[in-house]
């Protein structure tokens, strides 16, 4: 089994880590270029590259700047591997690149497709109050999260914050890949077309989406259960970044952790502008 892994951030790293732990590492990693990070602008590798380096693995690493450079890598990568796996890579993958692999490319998406296609499936599921979500493995095509499904597994949503749920879904994705890759490589899985009529599409959120009006917060603390539930979802969906926030005396206050008790919203942890987080 020879495959190329395409992915860059922490979500992709946890997926990749599960595959490595299962004894099925990729022959190559394709990730974003190193970027300056932090106040000192130190050149920092993507999380997936750092994982490979920290574990001392003999895996070739490619870091194309754009779609054109990625496509130019096709002959090299397809000579090394029969298929690809992509998880939170960061670039739109051209059709020519997808079709260059003999067995195509498997997409990893943290929702139960066709629901919540697009850029923000995890936040969107939390904000919608979904009781369950999951992961989908599908065959990549030129449309967003559109290809036929190879496998899915669901996960219960309780009170997880975004980062916690993302970590759980990443690990679930890696484990599901490890379960199906041998059968996929041997041609034993028949992909199932998505029901496109049931598709929903998500888009990127902005900092403004995390804003909570002060009056809504007061109502929620006073016993307005509907507003309390909405704020509870928003705080979880936008944690840790950009962080749900309100303004008091023209100063931004981040709401880091809240709970609902007897129909009232209770603040558990906040962060005042320019200050460290504090437990209430």
From TrEMBL:
One Pfam family cited in the UniProt record for this chain: Formyl_trans_C
Molecular function in Gene Ontology: methionyl-tRNA formyltransferase activity
Entry keyword annotation includes Transferase: yes
Catalysed reaction equations from the record: L-methionyl-tRNA(fMet) + (6R)-10-formyltetrahydrofolate = N-formyl-L-methionyl-tRNA(fMet) + (6S)-5,6,7,8-tetrahydrofolate + H(+)
Coiled coil: none
Source superkingdom: Bacteria
Domain named Formyl transferase N-terminal: residues: 1-161
CDD domains: FMT_core_Met-tRNA-FMT_N, Met_tRNA_FMT_C
InterPro entries: Fmt, Formyl_trans_C, Formyl_transf_N, Formyl_transf_N_sf, Formyl_transferase-like_C_sf, Met-tRNA-FMT_C, Met-tRNA-FMT_N
One CC-aspect GO term: cytosol
Span of domain Formyl transferase C-terminal: 227-263
Enzyme class at the top of the EC tree: transferase
Transferase listed as a keyword: yes
Keywords of the record: Protein biosynthesis, Transferase
List of residues binding (6S)-5,6,7,8-tetrahydrofolate: 111-114
Enzyme Commission number(s) from the entry: 2.1.2.9
Stored Gene3D superfamilies: 3.40.50.12230
PANTHER family assigned: METHIONYL-TRNA FORMYLTRANSFERASE (PTHR11138), METHIONYL-TRNA FORMYLTRANSFERASE, MITOCHONDRIAL (PTHR11138:SF5)
NCBIfam families per the UniProt record, alphabetical: fmt
Function according to Swiss-Prot or TrEMBL: Attaches a formyl group to the free amino group of methionyl-tRNA(fMet). The formyl group appears to play a dual role in the initiator identity of N-formylmethionyl-tRNA by promoting its recognition by IF2 and preventing the misappropriation of this tRNA by the elongation apparatus.
Family: Belongs to the Fmt family.
Protein's name in the database: Methionyl-tRNA formyltransferase
Species assigned in the record: Candidatus Colwellbacteria bacterium CG10_big_fil_rev_8_21_14_0_10_42_22
Lineage: Bacteria, Candidatus Colwelliibacteriota
């Amino acid at each position: 089994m020879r495959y190329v892994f395409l992915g860059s951030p922490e979500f992709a790293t946890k997926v990749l880590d599960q595959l490595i732990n299962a004894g099925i590492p990729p022959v190559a990693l394709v990730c974003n270029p190193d970027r300056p990070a932090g106040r000192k602008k130190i050149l920092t590798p993507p999380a997936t590259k750092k994982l490979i380096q920290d574990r001392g693995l003999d895996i070739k690493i490619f870091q194309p700047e754009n779609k054109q450079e990625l496509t130019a890598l096709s002959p090299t990568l397809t000579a090394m591997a029969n298929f690809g796996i992509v998880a939170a890579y960061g670039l739109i993958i051209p059709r020519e690149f997808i079709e260059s692999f003999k067995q195509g490319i498997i997409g990893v998406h943290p929702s139960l497709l066709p629901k919540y296609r697009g850029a923000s499936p995890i936040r969107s599921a939390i904000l919608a109050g979904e009781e369950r979500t999951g992961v989908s493995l599908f065959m990549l095509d030129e449309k967003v999260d559109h290809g036929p499904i190879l496998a899915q597994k669901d996960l219960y949503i309780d009170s997880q914050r975004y980062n916690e749920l993302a970590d759980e879904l990443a690990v679930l994705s890696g484990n599901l890949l490890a379960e199906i890759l041998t059968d996929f490589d041997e041609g034993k899985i028949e992909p199932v077309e998505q029901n496109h009529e049931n598709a929903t599409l998500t888009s990127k959120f902005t900092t403004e989406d995390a804003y909570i009006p002060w009056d809504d917060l007061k109502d929620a603390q006073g016993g307005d259960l509907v507003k309390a539930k909405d704020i509870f979802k928003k705080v979880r969906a936008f944690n840790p970044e950009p962080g749900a926030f309100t303004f008091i005396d023209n100063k931004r206050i981040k709401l880091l952790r809240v709970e609902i008790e007897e129909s009232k919203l209770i603040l558990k942890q906040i962060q005042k502008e320019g200050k460290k987080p504090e437990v209430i």
